[in-house]
Amino acid sequence: MTPITEVDGHRLALSNLDKVLYPATGFTKGEVLHYYATAADVLLPHLRDRPVSFLRYPDGPDGQVFFAKNVPPGTPDWVTTAEVPRSEGPARMVLVQDLASLMWAANLVTEFHTHQWVIQRPDRADRIVFDLDPGSPATVVDCCEVALWLRERLAEDGIEAYAKTSGSKGLHLLAAVHSTPSERVTEYAKELAVAAERALPRLAVHRMTKSLRPGKVFVDWSQNAARKTTATPYTLRARQEPTVSAPVTWDEVEECRSPGQLTFLATDIAPRLQDHGDLLAPLFDSADAARLPSLR
User: Fold this and answer.
1) How far is CA 122 from CA 57, 118, 188, in A?
2) How far apart are CA 8 and CA 99, in angstroms?
3) Is the pLDDT of residue 288 over 80?
4) Pairwise CA distance, residues 140 & 167, whole Å
């Protein structure tokens, strides 16, 4: 029998709570739901007003894994949705605005991916992001070196960057910017990615060409495009272990000597929140949002 629970006045049917979703650790769907419930206070502000793309893995990472951008069939009428402009025509997407809709979405077994803009201004970004992706044998340790260079370069333009793990192999850098056309943010991000490759030629590459990437860190600037999304802070990832896209301190980035130092599981997040709170909270302070400089 499927358990029924009530969240903020909404009834939810939570299914298959004993199903193992993360084979390496035996982490179950019930534990996934518990993680999202306990992380809701810090996760929800990063989701609110941002249309969500779901990367679903209902049978774990070894089963079918697929992206869902449109409103899933059977979505309750109390879940907020919004029309989102797309080049091929408008689409309707989910907005995870509250605990009830978060738990409904978590029950689908999903990674959360969000845009760099909010629904009120879908053509204007309020964040800039760099996805640092290591090509084997490079690792997140190499990503940290590139991240530190980018942090200093952004600071020269008055932009304060914050870091989080991707929850997979790499590292993400984020910063708050004044509402700016996504095309302009993308141009600026590409400029810095090119500069990183120029400054760190043995380590960084700004082109996606796979033959260029072994042993280097791909500085992916393209996720600033209005149509693109990035793994949301605190989302679980579809890996063998329940890894989380977890905010990290710059001290942790500077001191990283092995990939395990920047690998965080769902069970690690509550203690980290006790110690640090949400390390990405400054992204919500409009006073800290930077204006992008003119292109060089």
Assistant:
1) 28, 6, 19
2) 7
3) no
4) 11
Q: Rounded to an integer, what distance in angstroms lies between the CA atom of residue 272 and that of residue 274?
A: 5
Give φ, ψ of 230 to 5 degrees: -135, 150
Asked whether the beta carbons of 94 and 51 are under 8 A apart, the reply is yes
Query: What is the phi/psi pair of residue 132, to 5°?
Result: -95, 110
Going by pLDDT thresholds of 50, 70 and 90, the confidence category of residue 118 is very high
Report the distance separating Cα 154 and Cα 112, nearest Å. Answer: 27
Query: Two tokens at 22?
Result: 């993360």
For residue 291, the 8-state DSSP code is P
Q: What is the pLDDT of residues 179-225, one digit of tens each?
A: 999 999 999 999 999 999 999 999 999 998 888 889 999 999 999 99
Rounded Cα distance between 89 and 46, Å, is 26
Task: Give the model confidence (pLDDT) of 1-29 as tens digits.
Answer: 567 888 988 999 999 999 999 999 999 99
Q: Kindly write down the DSSP assignment for every residue of 29-54, as one continuous string.
A: HHHHHHHHHHHHHHHHHHHTTSPEEE
The DSSP line for 222-238 is GGGSTT--EEPTT-B-S
Task: Output phi, psi for 69, to 5 deg.
Answer: -100, -40
Whether the CB-CB separation of 157 and 292 falls below 8 Å is answered with yes
pTM (two decimals): 0.95
Count CB-CB contacts under 10 A for residue 189. 26
H or E element, residue 111: strand 110-114
Averaged over 121-147, what is the pLDDT?
97
C-alpha to C-alpha distances, 146 to 21, 161, 172, 260, nearest whole angstrom: 33, 13, 11, 18
